[in-house]
Structures are given as structure tokens and as C-alpha cells.
Amino acid sequence: MSLNELHLGEKATIVNLSSLNRYIKRRLLDLGILEGEEVLLKNRMPFHGPFMIEHNGQILGIRYREALQIEIKTS
Amino acid sequence: MMNIALVGNPNTGKTSLFNYLTGSYEYIGNWSGVTVEKKVGTLKNKRDHLIDLPGIYSLSPLSKDESVVSSYFISEDFSGIVNIVDASQLERNLILTIQLLEYGKPIVIGLNMSDVAKQRGILLDEEKLSEALHTPVVSIIARTGKGCNDLMRSISSIGTKPAERLRLDYGLDIENGIDRLLSILPIETIQHLSPRWLALQFFEGNKIIENYLETLVPKRQLNELYQEVEKQVKSNHRVKGLSQWIYQVRKNYILAILEQSVKKEQTHRANLTDRIDAIVTNRFLGMPIFLLCMFLMFKLTFDWLGTPLSDLLDQFISGSLTGWLKILLEDLGTSNFIQSLVLDGIVAGVGGVLVFVPQIFILFFFISFLEDSGYMARAALVMDKLMEAVGLNGKAFIPMIIGFGCNVPGVMAARTIEQPRERLITILLTPLMSCSARLPVYALFVGAFFAGHQTIIVFSLYVLGIALALLMAKIFSKTLLKSETSIFVVELPPYRIPQAKTLLRSTWDKGKGFLRKAGTFIFGGSVAIWLLSYAGPGGLNVDMDKSFLAAIGGVLAPILTPLGFGTWQAGASLLTGFLAKEVVVSSMNIIYHAPNTDSLQGLLTQAYTPLSAFSFIVFILLYVPCLATVGTIKKETGSAKWTFFAVIYALILAYIVSFILYQCGRLLGF
Question: Which residue of B18, B382, B554, B631 sits 20 to 30 Å from the alpha carbon of A20, by its own alpha carbon?
């Protein structure tokens, strides 16, 4: 499943980031987000707007389109 | 004297620490080659200098300002590094720390926000951390200054004992690769750098280091080596590339260190950030709240606080000050020429603009508050959907908001946008944001023609600027600057109540540029305008209508007639407005020979109708970026072509919009 299927407040582990654009992937890596890390969906903006995800106590915003490309699994 | 570099991830409190460790700025300049702000301050030991480097996650750069750090590391001479680290985000912060330790210069680590970490249940043993990293670690809280004096002592003792170079084992493939690279490098020319660090950065894919090595070794040889090593690593370690392998080795090392030095406890309390975020980034309230914030900011700046203060200052300058100067000049027995120059030229011109200092500083204060509180990143998030629709991303909104204060830092703030295409569009559009220098012009006209509706008319100009910027963004991204999709990843820092000291300092930093302008451009412009109005083909002290200024403005007048303000006075003041938009007010004070704002407003009601006045301020909003902004656009884009474009499209846009407004308004009977 992909990140956009996650419900608000739900946690998931990232399985695959390889379909992401190279720059996005690098920026996420800079922020410590890579395969095997756990993220929590905090919020999403209306009309397929950005997602707010929390990882390790830090919050970041990514777009809906990228959320679609992030493969996750829920435990 | 030592030069110490301050390095750290973005949003770790670098600016607070810089402000705390240095009493005052030595200077602010730009890094050579790129226009990234370079701040150098004198440390509190009154001896050493601290150099503030841009916030980076890794030495390998993705954006332009990130590349500054690597360039600095290979080309500049400095004695040590202060690495500020976010204690609550050690895992990713230490990736950079390892790269810095490999560089081999002495390092002091400032472990910031240990209080935040504690709240999150992260307990740190700084001694163990220090042992594992072979370098001093000092816990600090940069916002309050706690621990900063200990850090200062550690910094002062840099260089008293030799630094231990961290040496991680990257596995046989990389180690062989490093040896092979070192064997072909001319070691004597890179003596000041750690060869091992250079090699690791090269294998990691740091473009700046690659370019540097290409000046020493043939490119082909480097490429071959890189590919061979990458092939071996890929097949032996099942990774996707060299950078990923190097990252993994470092990460494993960090995890091992943290195992030793960090204890985690479970905590379950909703923190302040969560509670505020629940409201301001609410799905549906987010956008209205943002707009409300903006509206309140303008209301405070213009109605509640700024205008009363401006009025007081105006009374002082046009009343007491002018009176005293007049008496002084007469007592000194100066000639009519000098008296007229000082009173009708300089005081009218510079004073007419200085009265708006309160409003401008209040606006800068709010912008600083938004920046420091952490709300700016949320605004970017909330606005992203709208910005995406016009081919930009939410981060483009930040330069635009800063542009409300002044277009120059606005244009510079576009640097945080990673994609060159989006950055260029943002730079081109930021001048459409109504900067504080345009305020005096609005204030003058709005006070004269729309006295009962000040806020709403001024607000409409801001909205018009934004609306046109969005429209132009759409047009540009569909025509001139088509390209692949935009990217957007934004870090949302925890909310913090800005410290009064930091806030005042950044307000002053932003606002003093305006005062400097008053002393230079506006002063010079006022003198020039006064001279041109004093002299004419017929000699000195001519009737204003027969002056050089009237002749020059007269050339423009027929072109401006369809816009509703085809007078030589309008033409001349628009010309001078290119120096700085406030100069339009100075010019009008001089041209109409008005002793103060009130009487100038009275005179203007004879020269303009409300409709032509509105058309004029819209033209002022749009017509060309001021000289300083044009200079910044040139530096930031590095292209004369795009700079020229920025000026021309704005001029055409202004003409079209004012034309439509005036002609439609007339048809509707205004």
C-alpha cells in the first residue's frame, strides 16, 4: 500500500522509496527518512494537498503525488 | 586570531547561537561567486571570528546555498569548527558531524535543545558521546544562552591540542578506492586538506569536490575509478550506489554510538506544537487563518499602530525640525540657493520618506516574528496546493511574504527553492509584491483621495499584486519556462516563542537598509530632483513649469495620458521612482513645493481624480522593480537577459493594468 492510504494518526513502516524523484529521495534521506523507518500521518490538506508526516519527533510536509509513490506497510 | 566556522543542519538554532556567541556583526557580505549571505561576527572573547555558514544536512550539496559550505571547506583557511547539533534529532544530525570530523579540523559540538530532547524522553550522556566522537561536546540551549559560556571556553581552547581525526572503516572496496585515488592525486597541492576526506567526499558524489579534483586529475581517470569502485561495492554489499553504502556505514556507526550514550523513555504528552498545528494547519481553517494573520499584520502596521506614529513624526519633521533648520540657516547667513536646497530639496525629499519609518519597522517586526516562530513553513504548506496550480510550490510563498517588507531580501529568499525553474519564476514575480517602500506613495494618495477606506484600498493593492503574480506564474510556467514537475519537501520546525532580543535584532537588520537608502539614494535623488526643478534652459531659480524636470517629464506625459495621469509631474516622479519607490513621494514634495504631507495631499486633489489616483498607485505597484531589486535580480539569476525581462514585463503589465482600470473606470462613470 502507499502512504496516501494511511489514516490520520496511523503509523506505518516505509518499505520502498525507489519510485520517487531523485531530489525528493535525497531530501527525505537528509531528513532521516529511508526504507525501514516508521512514520505517522499527522494531517492532510484538502483537495489532494500536502501531507504532514511525523518521523522521529520531527514533522515534515510532502505532496500528495509523492505520498502516492511511497510504499509502506502497517504492522 | 582564529577563524571558526559555524556549521549545522537547518532549523537547529544556528542563528540564535551565532547571535549569542558574537556580540555584534563584523560584517555581512556575500560569498564569492554566489549571492549567499555571509555573516562574520567577533566572538565574545574579542579575539576570534565566527563565520556563519548556510544550514546543510550533508556536505554534498543539492541547492546553491548548500554548495557554499563545501567550497568554503576546500578554499578557505580556518582553525576549527563549531558544529551545532539538534539533540532531539541526533541520528540525522550526526551524519553531518561525521563528515566534519573526517575533515580533520578541531571541532566543538554544541548539543542544542537538550531540553526539547528531554521532553521527548531522550536522555543523553554527553560525556559518552564526547568519548565516542573524540571531540568536546557541550550541552547548550541556544535560545536562552544556557551552556553557551562553556561552549565559548571550549571554542577558545581550539588548537591547544591536536585534533583526532575520525576514521571509520568503509570496507575493503572503498578503502582500496581511497588508496588508488590518493596515489594519483598530487598530494603537495592539497596539503591543507585531508586527502582521505577528499576521497570520501568524491566517492559520496559531492559535485563540488569532484569539480575540484578535476582540476588536479584528468576527468576520465576519475570517472573510471568511481565506476570501478561503485561496481565492486554494488556487487559485494547489495546497495544501489556508493553514496548509499557510505551513508549506511555512517548510520550504523551513529546507531552504535547512540546505543551507548542515549536512553529513551516513553512519554505521552501532546506538546505545544501539536496543539497549535491542530488549529493553524487544520484542513479547512488553515487558509482562512493564514489570510487573517496577514490582514491583522496590515491592520496593525497601517491603521492601529503605524499611521499614528508616522503622523507624529511628520508633525515633527515638517514643523519643529524645519523651523529650527530655517532659523539655523538664516543665522548662518546662507544664500537663498543653499536654503532652498536644504529645505525644499533635502528636508522635503528625505523627510517626506523618513516619516514612514515607523510603518516599515512594524512590518519588518511582524515578518521577523513569523520567520522565528516557525509559522512561515506552515504557511508554505498551507499555500502549496494553490501554488502548485500555477506551477510553483508552497515555498515560493515565503519570498513573496518577505517581499512585502522589501523585494531585495524577498528575491534572495528564493534560494531555498531547489528547482532552478521555480526559483527563477519566483524571482521574477517577487517584485510584484507590494514592498514597504511603495507604502509612502499609497499612504500619500490614499490619504488624499480615499481617507475613509485606507486599509481596504491598501489591502486591495496587496491582493492585486498577489493575484497578478499568480496569473503571471501560470503564464510563465506554461510558456517561457516549461519543464518537469515541481518538487516540495518542507521541514516544519517546532513552534517557538521568538526571543525579544533575536526579534529586535532581525527587525533592525532588515529595517536599517531602509534608513541607509534614505541617506544615499533618496538623499541623492532628492538633491538631483531639486536641482533639475530649480534649473531650466532659462537659467537658475526658474518657474517650475520651465525647469529641466518639466521638460523631461513632459516627454513621458503623452504616453501616460491614456492611464489618466498625463502630467509632466507624474512622468518625472515615476522616472525618479526607479531609484527607490519612496523617491516618488520625495519628488512630489519637491515638485509641488509642499511643506508637509497634508498640504501636498491638498495639492494632489487638484491634479488627480480619485480614479486617476488609483490608476497611478496601481502603476506604482507594478511598473518596474527599484534599482536595488534589479541589482539583486541580476546577481541572483546571473543573467542580464532575465534581469532585462523582469523590468520589461513589469512595465508592460503595469501599463496594461492601469490602462484597463482607467478606461473601464471612465466608462463606468467614475
Answer: B382
Is B52 found in the same domain as B147?
yes
Range of the domain at B468: 289-482+506-667
Place of cell 553514496: B243
Contact: A31, B384; criterion CB under 8 Å: no
Which residues of chain B have a pLDDT value below 70? 24-37, 163, 267-270, 302, 352-353, 356, 481-486, 514, 517-518
Residue B524 C-alpha, separation from nearest chain A C-alpha, in angstroms: 47
Answer with the one of B229, B264, B299 that is the final residue of a domain: B264
CB contact under 8 A, B277 and A59: yes
- Domains of chain A with bracketed CATH: 3-73 (2.30.30.90)
Q: B333 and B304 in one domain?
A: yes
Rg (C-alpha) for chain B, rounded Å, is: 29
Chain B interface, Cβ < 8 Å to A: 57-58, 62, 88-89, 91-92, 120, 240, 247, 273, 277, 281, 283-284, 286, 377, 380-382, 384-385, 388, 394, 418-419, 485, 487-492
Owner of C-alpha cell 502548485: B388
B241 and B370 in a single domain? The answer is no
| pLDDT at res. B249 | 92
Residue B633 lies in a domain: yes
User: Which of B96, B127, B156 is a domain's end point?
Assistant: B156
Name the residue facing A24 among B281, B489, B491 (closest C-beta). Answer: B489
Q: Let me know whether B303 and B405 are in one domain.
A: yes
Do B95 and B8 form a contact (C-beta atoms < 8 A)?
Answer: no
- CA proximity to B107, closest of B209, B254, B8: B8
Give A21's contacts in chain B (Cβ within 8 Å): 485, 487
Which chain A residues have a beta carbon less than 8 Å from that of B57?
A: 30-31
Give the residue among B243, B250, B255 at the shortest CA–CA distance from B96: B250
Same domain, B77 and B193: no
Interface mutation target, options A3, A30, A47, chain B, most CBs of B under 10 Å = A30
Q: Which residues on B lie below 8 Å from A18 (Cβ)? A: 240
pLDDT of residue B484: 60
Q: What pLDDT score was predicted for residue B618?
A: 94
Given CB atoms, is A65 within the 8 Å cutoff of chain B? yes
Q: Does residue B319 sit in helix, strand or coil?
A: helix
* Grid cell at residue B222: 576519475
For residue B612, being part of any structural domain is answered with yes
Tell me whether residue B23 is in a domain. yes
Work out the minimum CA distance from B95 to partner chain A, whole angstroms.
Answer: 9
Q: Which of chain A's residues have a Cβ under 8 Å away from the Cβ of B91?
A: 32, 56
ipTM of the complex: 0.91
Alpha-carbon span A61 to A56, nearest angstrom:
14
CB neighbourhood size of B186 (10 A): 9
At A43, is the secondary structure helix, strand, or coil? strand
Cβ within 8 Å, pair B487-A24: yes
Domain check: are B109 and B185 in the same one? Answer: no
Write the CATH number for B209: 1.10.287.1770
pLDDT at B35: 46
Question: B188 with B305, same domain?
Answer: no
Secondary structure, 3-state, B87-146: HHHHHHHHHHHHHHHHHCCCEEEEEECHHHHHHCCEEECHHHHHHHHCCCEEEEECCCCE
Q: pLDDT value at position B269?
A: 60
Number of domains in chain B: 3
